[in-house]
Amino acid sequence: MMKRGAIIVFEGIDRCGKSTQVQLLHDVLQKSRSVELMRFPNRQTPIGQKINSYLTDKAVQLDDHVIHLLFSANRWEARNQMLETIQSGKSIIVDRYAYSGVSFSAAKGLDLDWCKDPDRGLPAPDVVIYLQLSIEEAQKRGNYGEERYETVEFQRKVKDLYENKMKDPSWKVVNASQKPEDLHNDIRSIVESVIQDVEHTPLNTLTI
Ligand code: TMP
Ligand code: MG
């Protein structure tokens, strides 16, 4: 039987070190395995360009429900490519996914179930690696405030919403306040075993 790839999702508050770790993991795994990197929002597509303008330009106004649906649509437009990649045996490392969608929109006060609905049915991650970091430490890492959502009060709400999901069996919480090399080692051992464990299992769809 053909081996399938794994979907490995990374989540965390802004400035938790996620993008650095995702890149490092990709560069290291690439030497021995078939992997690719995806990032949401994908700012390259027409929908992604609209999202980017909303995030970077505070003068751009969009209803909270509308931007939520655009973030979700930006994942749906990647769905076929994700399925093809997984079925070809390649694993995907994903920088943010539906849990960002739910946590950031629900932090604005939108109904939690309403926030979950649009993403139901997307390919489900085989593991969600949550980089846990205190708001105080994230804030010290600098450049806070460059994009929409990067305020301490808002990130606190996002963090609480994420952490309601932490008991889910597919979630692995890692300590993001460690040295980057140590964090990378923790992440790598989780990922190596997930890739092996799921090779012959069917891919699920997201229920959130
Ligand atoms: P980034 O910093 O990882 O590029 O993500 C940009 C911002 O968009 C970040 O503050 C998280 C937020 N976001 C959402 O609000 N909803 C989503 O669905 C995603 C993927 C990100
Ligand atoms: Mg950011």
TrEMBL record:
Domain Thymidylate kinase-like: 10-187
Keyword annotations from UniProtKB, A to Z: ATP-binding, Kinase, Nucleotide biosynthesis, Nucleotide-binding, Transferase
Record-listed E.C. numbers: 2.7.4.9
Biological process per Gene Ontology, one example term: dUDP biosynthetic process
GO MF annotations in UniProt: ATP binding; dTMP kinase activity; nucleoside diphosphate kinase activity
Pathway field: Pyrimidine metabolism; dTTP biosynthesis
Protein family: Belongs to the thymidylate kinase family.
UniProt-recorded name of the protein: Thymidylate kinase
Lineage, opening ranks: Eukaryota, Amoebozoa, Evosea, Variosea, Cavosteliida
